[in-house]
Amino acid sequence: MPGLQIFPLLLIPTVLYALIAVPAGENVAEAMAAVAFTMPLASGAVWTFTWGHLILLVAVVTLFVEILKSTTPSGAQMVDNGLAVAVFILSFILFLLVKPFGTTEFFIIMLMSLLDFLTGSVIMTRVSQRTVQYGQH
Predict the structure, then answer these.
(1) What is the pTM of this model?
(2) What share of the chain is helix, strand, coil (3-state, %, to 5)?
(3) Among 4, 50, 52, 54, fewest CB within 10 Å belongs to which?
(4) pLDDT one-digit tens code per residue, 55-90
């Protein structure tokens, strides 16, 4: 499916964050710290998972899938990498200029989008070097 190959998956956690942050406005820190679920552990401790944690978990998983996608050099991967840098630029602008996006959770998502672009570029370059045969005399 070429559509999925060029879709920048880190847009998903960015949009999820926006769906919580924009309505929360000034209360975004509280919204991110709100409990999504808890789970009792065998030790007797209670594991608390917040909405911010959940969005970061989605971001980590999507970053992993993006890295896997970048191992196949193709025209679609070049488009995906270009869209990844666009997601980073958009995230960077939101982080700097829009108050609800100025949180640590969003900073980490923004950093992951930068890492997506950088790893995609490096992996594509390395894989392409192995597939291109230079003339030897």
Answers:
(1) 0.83
(2) 75, 10, 20
(3) 4
(4) 999 999 999 998 888 877 777 778 888 889 999 999
